[in-house]
Amino acid sequence: MKWIGEYLTELKRILDATPQDTVEKIASAILDAHERDAQVFVLGNGGSASTASHWACDLGKGTVTEGQRRLRLISVTDNNAVMTAWSNDTSYDDVFIEQLKNLLNEGDVVVGISASGNSENVLRAMQYANDNGCVTIGATGFGGGKLAGMSDIPFVVDSYDYGLVEDLHLILNHILRVCIHETLKAA
């Protein structure tokens, strides 16, 4: 099947095009939040919701370092009761912003993950974070969409394929886990 080789070739191309300076900025923003005991929130829909959960697991547990305070990382995609209550009672467009209104503090970090960069509920949450003095990180593809333009640190995957964009967002998570864990171990 030629598609296997084509997919892997394209994945390698976008891996090679990954902006390492942007990855370093993201790691630094999360490490800075850790230093200040600020929280990091991650959110997304569909495949990006599962990526947000994966980030919360890997960065929340996988960076634990003996003798260091733990990273305070929360995925706001994981509470089905809260998600469906806000969706039913107001709008799905508000599922993330309403949770942030309960939890967000000035100086926290909010990571919005959206392959297209145009998911309305992600955009609303990111605008709320920007309006409340937070650091915003937008992980996207498809040229960046609206999300890239409203993020302090945009991470735009050079692809218009959902699978490849989602692959890179998950790889970004794994790179960040290594960077953050190794930095904390060295401190």
Can you characterise this structure?
- The chain is 57% helix and 13% strand.
- It has one domain: Glucose-6-phosphate isomerase like protein, domain 1 (Rossmann fold), CATH 3.40.50.10490.
- α5 runs parallel beside α6 (120-131).
- β4 (135-140), α7 and β5 form a beta-alpha-beta unit.
- It has helices at residues 2-16, 20-35, 47-61, 80-89, 95-103, 120-131, 145-149, 162-186, and strands at 39-44, 72-75, 109-113, 135-140, 153-156.
- A 5-stranded parallel sheet has the order 2-1-3-4-5, with helices on both faces.
- It is built from 8 helices and 5 strands.
- It is globular.
- With 187 residues, it is α/β, with parallel strands linked by helices.
Shape: globular
> Beta-strand level of the residues, as a percent range?
5-15%
- Helix percent reads 55-70%
CATH fold name, please? Rossmann fold
Tally the beta strands. Answer: 5
Determine the CATH superfamily: Glucose-6-phosphate isomerase like protein, domain 1
Uncertain segments are none
- What Rg is obtained from the alpha carbons, in whole angstroms? 16 Å
CATH class value: Alpha Beta
Q: Please give the domain count.
A: 1
Mean pLDDT: 97
Helix/strand structural class: alpha/beta
Q: Biggest sheet, open or closed, and with what strands and sense?
A: 5 strands, parallel
Distance between the termini: 48 Å
Query: Helix-strand pattern, N to C?
Result: HHEHEHHEHEHEH
Helical element count? 8
Strand arrangement across the biggest beta sheet:
2-1-3-4-5
